[in-house]
Design a protein that fits this description.
Strand content: 5-15%
Distance between the termini: 38 Å
Largest sheet: 2 strands, parallel
Number of helices: 5
Number of strands: 4
Structural class: mainly alpha
Order of helices and strands: HEHHEHEEH
Radius of gyration: 15 Å
Helix content: 25-40%
Length: 130
């Protein structure tokens, strides 16, 4: 068995995956963290490791709150994520007319969360943004 796969007998997640998912559970509604932000917060791994973890195990946590650092929505999941962002009031930037499908981006300056504040919502506390 590979070390990044759950133990099929016990159902246990790899330790790193548990830590990543714990961080994702902390992200308040209306806020996001980039893959690299999660890795930096943990002090280990990098954006690719966090992305792999989210791809394998992220379905049980608010996966839409872990995003690309440029604010582009996750390919193939844009509409599902967009519904969550609108429901939570996550700051968005309207897409330019030249953007494929005219899908908005996240407004990373306003939506990004650094893990220091438990305040929720996009306008709660600018000091809580990265």
């Amino acid at each position: 068995m590979r070390s990044d796969e759950p133990d099929e007998v016990s159902g246990d997640l790899p330790e790193y995956a548990e830590r990543v998912l714990d961080v994702v559970d902390l992200i308040p509604p209306g806020r996001v963290m980039a893959y690299g932000d999660v890795a930096e917060w943990l002090g280990e791994g990098g954006p690719r490791q966090v992305g792999r973890t989210m791809a394998l195990y992220g379905g049980a946590v608010p996966w839409w709150r872990v995003v690309r650092s440029d604010g582009v929505l996750l390919a193939g999941h844009e509409l599902r994520a967009l519904a969550h962002y609108r429901e939570e009031g996550t700051p968005l930037r309207e897409a330019s007319r030249s953007a494929e499908g005219h899908v908005p981006r996240l407004d990373m300056k306003r939506a990004r969360w650094d893990g220091r504040s438990a305040e929720t919502g996009p306008g709660a506390d600018d000091a809580a943004h990265i």
